[in-house]
Amino acid sequence: MTMTFGRELSSRRTSGLIRAYAQENKIGLTSNLFPDILEDEIFSKMMRDPNFWISQELEEKIIFAISQSLDISGILYHLGTESLITNAYDLLPMDNSKVTLEELIHRIPILINRLTRTVSLNVEILNSKLAVFQFEYLHRYTEKWYDAIFFQGMLNGLAVLFELKEFNIQMTKTKLYGIHVTHKDLGPDIQFGADTNEYHFQWKDEPYQLSRSTLNKDDLSNRHKVMMVSKGEDTSEELSFVDVGEVVKKSRELAIENRDLEAAVEILKSFKYELEKKQLSIAKDLKLAKNIQKGLIPQIIPDWKGIQFWAAYSPMQEVSGDYYDYFPFQSDRLGIVVCDVSGHGVPAAFITALSKMLFTNYKYAKPSESFKHINRDLLDLVKQQGYTTCVYALIERDYRIVYSIAGHPRPILFRHKTGKAEIQEGEGTFLGMFPDGGDTYRDHSLQLEPGDKLFLYTDGITEAENDRGESFGEERLISLIEKTKDLSIQDSIESIINVHKEFTMGTDPMDDITLLGFQLSPRLPEFNHHKELADKHYKRKNFKDACDEYKKAHEILPRELITQLAYGKALANAGKYDEAILLLETYNRFKTNNYLSHAVLGFCYYKVSQFEKAELEWKKAHSLNDDNLSILFNLAKVYEKLGQRAKLKEMTDRMKRIEASFRHILPLEKKWESMLDE
Fold first, then answer.
1. What is the pTM of this model?
2. Which stretches does DSSP call E strand in 107-196?
3. Residue-wise pLDDT tens digits, 167-180
4. Which distant-in-sequence residues (6+ apart) come within 8 Å of 290 by Cβ?
5. In what order do the strands lie in the sheet with 412-415?
6. Which of 155, 300, 417, 432 has its CA 20 to 30 A from that of 599?
7. Would you list the domain boundaries of the chain?
8. Alpha helix (H) ranges present in 116-170?
């Protein structure tokens, strides 16, 4: 296609881009690379004649075509640098006298006129270290984003020639409303849509001076390409030579290296993006695993028959290999287990989940029997790819403790009468590692007295080190247990953990940490006294006095669930609904499957007109006892209050299916019919 163009620009910049494009795509320059844009003859002249001029329109078409497959911002920058370096010789005085950087800056407009007729340059030296360049486009021509980069590259050429070590070049203003490049060196605070195109060129060095040279390092025939850089006015002045050919060659090599570096950076960015996506996915999975494990490990163990529990648990990662739990054996025993799975993270968390299932399945009267079965099943499931250490204790009704050890730190018993703490006996091999491990497990026993405490823990406690490499150790742990003899089990555990944190301050955690303790309350006789009195008052429907006695018992053992529920019922019967709600909500966090607690809590919500919450609690109660007519009746009353006629009818129909003669059905049907009329 033949097109006619004006002549406003030197083709040097465009031919440089074409050469870079050909090199990048590994194609020759023997034929026209852009036949749809320009004629073969014009292409040939552009490539062989450095003084050939083309139109701004043609240059824009070629740049657009090249930029579709090549990031040209870095190339343009280095072409600008080369343009100044290769033309600077002609700007120097003919008599070989020296010029300063400031003097050469004032001559840059001459060079601009040799390269383009679309723009003029005004230069102002604000001080000995700062120059301002303002490029003004003639009224017939429009600003181009690629000019912004090319002109800044030219200013970089000044720094190269004068061997500046510290300098800064930034675009401060442009008429453009955006620059379609990713080049980072233009400037951080560019004013777009301004009335001019402005650059600031600032330097800190004492610049050398530049002059033409009649000398030549290598070849006299190339002396017109050599400039001499000097510093100083006396005979001891420093001299160096600038061979334009060598500088341009190095500049091009640098441009290629920069393009390769930018390509590598883009690849790294891509890898970084993919890595961040995977990390987000992993973080999401870990968060899910953490929440699942959080559901496996009890936040608080409720009081049991006068024994109070407390645990400190600190995983090293999102998910932990430490695990503790409790297992009620109907009403006469309670099992307590602390495990430490080999390794950390998700694999360890998987074995903790298996452990919970297995300990729930194997509730034998002897912990050693449970260990034998769990060891066998872990071997089958994990295939010796992981194991766990464990201490498992059964608490009897008479406060006798039967326990067994599987490769785990032995319990520490604190005797209230003597004020002394001692490590208990016991040994046995890991669970899930050796087929004959069942032969190593033995049962041991001890008797708890009021005030006695038993501590179960993982080796993350004792093996933790301070910043001097000293281990926390069993002796330090025993000493702290004895120092906290007068504290409750909760305060004792928290005090020990605070000391442990101070000891390891400034070091990274080496392992998961678990410390679980329980104590037979020294106030157990007092608790039993208040509990018996409260029960008697409740049976006589003397709810006020029952509340007073239950409150005293509850203060002694605040997490004893039987007393907590009885206290909540007494408060509800006494009309203290808000107090009952707080107490029963706490109870339901410990025990979610008690029909009565949800039924009473629903009643309390109903009495304070929180009908939606009453509905939710009574639905829970109904799910646990679905043929209870009173719960269905209560739900019907809620729907009556909420004006939900369809649900009211549904509850009425359910009651009729269970017992058609139920006396509350007829009034509800009449209410449903009246709502229909309304």
1. 0.58
2. 119-127, 130-137, 167-174, 191-192
3. 999 999 988 877 75
4. 318, 319
5. 307-314, 513-520, 453-457, 412-415, 420-423
6. 300
7. 1-70, 73-295, 297-520, 524-677
8. 145-161
